[in-house]
Structure formats: C-alpha cells, structure tokens
C-alpha cells in the first residue's frame, strides 16, 4: 500500500475513533439513549476491508456499525444526528445507533438480530449475480454470531449457490461478557467454514494494511470467481460490549496489552517509517478530524427532531397501485 | 370465463407476473423440478429456467432472509414456504427484517416481496402440519396479509401482492387447492385491502376468510330455506383491513358472527370482534360471536379431527343465537 492511500485510511480510522469517543461522551450526558456499541480498537478491520471495495459493492453489518458507515461515505454529521435521534440522522431518527444507513453507497445497515443478516447479505450477493452487476457483498458479524441458525443457513446457501459474499467475522474475543472459549470449541471462528464448505482465513486485525490485503484477496476472488469466503479478523474492543457494560469479565492487563497494538499507533508508525515528515501530516489530520467531529456534535445538538405526527410514516408504501385493469369484485 | 382450480389460478398469476417483470423469481423447496409440493408452480421451471425458479435446501430462515436481501437490492422475490407451519423457522426474517427494513431506514430501503404458501388444516396431518397462523403475521405493522378463498380472488390478489411494494404474507388454503370455480379471461387484478361480499343479505353478517368462506356460504344457503337471509363477507385482506365494508354491513344487519379456522386466544378473529364492536356498537343488537377452531393441537385420528373445525351447522347455531 502506498503512503497516500495509507494517509487516507489513517484519517478514516482517526475519525472513527474520535466519533466513537464523542458518542460515548454524549451518551453519558444522556443526549443519546438506548444502546451504544462502540468500535474503539477495531478500526483497522472496517477501514482496511471497506477500502478494498468497488462502488457497486454492498455492505451489511451488525449493530456495531458506526465505523463501517463512516468508511462507506457516511458523514459524521448524519451519524451523530442519528444518535441524537434527529430527523437529519442517516436513518431519520428511526434507526438509532444499531441501524445506520447510507443506501446511496449500498451501505445497507445496521442490523440488530445477531447473525440474522447473514442470509440477507447472501441475498444481496444473489441479486448481484442475478443482475450481473459484478458486485460483491461484505457481511460483518461478531464471534458471537457463528453459532446461530441463520448464520449457518446463510452460509450454506452462499456456498451451495456460489454467491459473491465475503463474511467478515470480527472476532474480538467476547460475546458481550462471554469469552470465546465458552462459546466455541475452537479458538478460531473461521472453522465454521469447513462445514459448508467455504474457503476461509484467520488474520490478525490490528494493522490496517494487513486487513486491506486479506480483504482484497477475498473480495477479488468473490468478484472474479463468484465464490464466498469466511474471513476472520482477530481484533479487540477497548470499551465494553455497549455503554451499559461494566466489563468485569476481563482484566485491565488484557485491555492494556491490546492497546499496545492500537491500529492508530500502528498506522502512524507505518507512515513515519515511510518518512518522518508524515508527523506533520498526522498532526494536521488529527486537527482536521477534531473540527469535523465537533462540527458533527454541534450539528446534532442543533438539529430538528422528527415529529409525533409523522410517527407511522414509512411503515408501508401506500403508493403501490398496480397498473392494469382493476376488478372491484 | 373459465373454470380453474385455485392451484391453476395461482399458477397463472405466477406465470403472468414472471413474464411481465424479470426481476421476479420464485424460490422454495421443490418449486422447480418437483413442480411444487402442491403443484402450484407446475411448469414454471420449464418456462423460466433455473435462474428464476429456484429449488432450495431445507433452510427456511436462510432462503427467506436471502429473499429479503434480494428485495432490498431491487429484485422482487416470491418465497414459497411448503406450508406456513414451516414459516416459524423464518418468522424472524419476516417480522424483524422484511417488516422493519423500510421503517428503520426512514424510507430509504424497500422490501417488495411475497411470502406465500399453503396454510390451514387439511385432514389427518396432525398437530404440526395443520395450523392457521395468520394471527402472528397480521399482528405486525409493516407487512400485509392476504388470504384468498377461491380461484378468481387467488389469481387477482396474488398478482396485486406481487406488484405491491411492501412485503406481503400470502396464505393459500392447502385444503382447497383443487376446488374449481370461475376465473375471468384476460388480465385483471384485485386490489389488496378490500373485503368482498360473497353473498348479500340482511338478517346477520357472517365474516370469514379462506376455508371458512365455503362453510359460511353453505350455512347461508341452509338458513335461506327457513327465510333467514344472511350476508357473507370474505375478508380476503386481513391487513390492511377494509373495516368500512364490514361496518356498513353491520349497520344494515345489526348482527355479526365471525368464523375462523384459527384458535381463539389472541387471534385475528377475536381481535376483529373487538374492533367491530368498537366501531359499530350502536348498530349491534347482539354481541358479536367469534367461532374459532377448538383450542388444542390438531389430532391425527379421523374419528376426532373433524371436531376441530366449525361446520355449517355450528355457524347456523351461532346465527340463531344472535337473531
């Protein structure tokens, strides 16, 4: 990866980090309600993998979705506004933290039922194949999602029908408070792929360049050969499962040891290894992102709420009026 | 006009719509090479090929969810459940995904698809294969629920359901697939959200759908011989519901009996009674009676299974109670 691209990816990761930190702050100030699942520490995975996509590709994620949204053209303003429940939010205030959307760039949310979007992502890949548009679908899930029925059924169909979908398991070692040793027989979640069967890989997910390379390989293969892939990234979340999680199930030492391999730090080191001159660019990126995030918070703060009179809007599309002769029996 | 069985009428609807719009595909167990477990999709694989008529492994949640993803990506899937009893494996995809996608995205995504297949009891299929589950689906905002009772309605309603931009749950009557009746020639559609007065009358309103429609018509015929002229209304669309037609009828007859195959507790039919008494209380001269299936699982034995379902006699007795 050249330095120019790495600079862009660094900025993306830094934006994700600061966005999540500001969201956490707003949550403690009760500006954000409900659930808030932060991506802090995992930035390399979303950033690296989404950088390997083409415009016609599609993304499905689970509920820890802010970073993926930002990586796929989502704005900090519309994201923060969504968290604040505003009409200008990326889901009109109707989704919230778990359901971010950027449909114009095929970022299809933001889904809250663990593992259930696996078949839906297979459906997006099916549609690409049906339409012949050469699109690939990425489907992000956690390590906690690989035991549930829909995950299994989705991957069965993806393998059987050779669908161009890459399932990315973001293995951060915990399903909420349950460590992976208590939910999986093996340490690697990608072993699930053997059953379908489907090609797989398990990769360290802290260096954005590694993530990019691993994802690109799976995505290109999906696109060129129409074959699915199960790509597991070993990563770590520095905060709890959600803001409500006190994190008693892991040690401070464990968290600190992962922080030594902070994706931001690793990317900075890579840039500085290219040239020490990048130190200046890094500082200016950080300043720039800071303004962007503070602007987003201000925007969210000052935005309009949706109105109660519009509560039921979007439940149905009423304009579906079939053409042709209509019989009133 | 031609005489077609309900399965033939549905087959025509599927073929016509698939010819008209190549975004439509049919997916489900045995829909292709087997011609459909109930032969509703007979001949379609031959006509449209494997790209558009797709046999699946037994993975209802998987292929229902795949349909959702395809619909969100701009195709128009028809997902067949071999019977609606098996839809429960996939109910999460229908309720948590298809029904919610548009709302959660503030209208930025749409999920135009039809989940269809046979429901209700046949004979001697026992507890897991005999259920009427429309109450589960009608409960959910974001989906439409349609239940045709004859060939003309089945064809016209399925065509409309396929063209609808919302996800539609389309429950056919497994027991009545072979029943023949008149179907108009040429292209026609029946809009969703409309009841149908199958038999006009004045002394009481019978409200029914799917398999209880012929039961109510038989009861009406018998009642007519003793000078009691009842109106039989086929709900057809459970959601959206055409309350106006039902209320207008009660304003005329002052009495209503609802007849459903489903169980009584927390069911569509019992909700409907509550709703109609709210809307038409001043016109009712008697409480609304809802006749439901007996509140137990379906047994296998011929000797007792028949007692699960209301007969024309049961309907007549209920009418006499409200008169």
* Level-1 CATH class name of the largest domain in chain B: Alpha Beta
Biggest sheet, spatial arrangement of strands of chain B: 3-2-4-5-7-6-12
Might you state the CATH topology name of chain A? Rossmann fold
Proportion in β-strands of chain B: 15-25%
Terminal residue distance of chain B: 38 Å
Cα-based radius of gyration of chain A, to the nearest Å: 20 Å
- Overall mean confidence score, pLDDT of chain B: 98
Kindly describe this structure.
The complex is a heterodimer of chains A (329) and B (323). Chain A has 329 residues and is an alpha/beta fold. Chain A has one domain (3-310): Rossmann fold (3-Layer(aba) Sandwich), CATH 3.40.50.970. Chain A is built from ten helices and eight strands. Chain A has helices at residues 3-28, 43-50, 66-71, 76-83, 117-131, 149-160, 208-225, 252-259, 263-274, 278-302; strands spanning 58-61, 107-110, 137-142, 165-171, 174-175, 178-179, 199-204, 229-234. In chain A, the strands form two sheets. Chain A has a six-stranded parallel beta sheet, sandwiched between helices. The longest helix of chain A is centred in the N-terminal third of the chain and has 26 residues, at 3-28. Chain B is α/β, with parallel strands linked by helices and 323 residues long. Chain B has two domains: 2-183, 3-Layer(aba) Sandwich (Rossmann fold), CATH 3.40.50.970; 196-322, 3-Layer(aba) Sandwich (Rossmann fold). Helix content of chain B is 36%, strand content 18%. Chain B is built from twelve helices and 14 strands. A seven-stranded mixed beta sheet of chain B has the order 3-2-4-5-7-6-12, with helices on both faces. In chain B, helix 2 (44-48) links the parallel strand 2 (24-28) and strand 3 (53-55). Chain B starts with a strand and ends with a helix. The model of chain B has no long low-confidence stretch (mean pLDDT 98). At the A-B interface, strand 2, helix 5 and helix 6 of A face helix 3, helix 4, helix 5 and helix 7 of B.
